[in-house]
Amino acid sequence: MDHYTTRNFTLTQSVGFMLTKARNLITAEMDSALKDLDITSQQMGILLSMRRGAASTPFELSKLLGIDTGLMTRMLDKLETNGLLERSRSGDDRRVVNLALTAKGEEIAAQIPEIAPQVLNARLKKFTKAEFQELCRLLRKFIGD
């Protein structure tokens, strides 16, 4: 089924436009809330993924977070410069770079769960529990999970 046609398509009413606008709103609000930790919302994703053991290499992080490898490298450079993570070559395969949070990185990552839910809950405050569950269900369906 085609939901859009050349006659009914309007940029500002398209799903892509609305998803981008929603993402930009959440990103700006999360970046503002994370300012005191000196990290961005994208860096938050890296730190949390590493802390929870979901990824330990740049490739795994890129795939998990949907970030291209060039941007991932730049973000890892920044996190390393700020003393939040360390890179090391794999002993088994020198081509593989392993990542580990530093003590400072662990400390910062541990504070994120105190901040992020507040930002998301503020954005979702007008949703009922059922609406929130439906939104999540529809987004999972949209992205193919």
TrEMBL record:
Domain HTH marR-type: residue ranges: 12-144
Pfam families per the UniProt record, alphabetical: MarR
Coiled-coil residue spans: none
Keyword vocabulary terms for this entry: DNA-binding, Transcription, Transcription regulation
Entry-linked SUPFAM superfamilies: Winged helix' DNA-binding domain
Name recorded for this polypeptide: Transcriptional regulator SlyA
The keyword Ribonucleoprotein belongs to this UniProt entry's keyword annotation: no
Lineage: Bacteria, Pseudomonadati, Pseudomonadota, Betaproteobacteria, Burkholderiales
Native source species: Paraburkholderia haematera
InterPro entries: HTH_MarR-typ, WH-like_DNA-bd_sf, WH_DNA-bd_sf
Keyword Translocase: no
PROSITE patterns for this protein: HTH_MARR_2
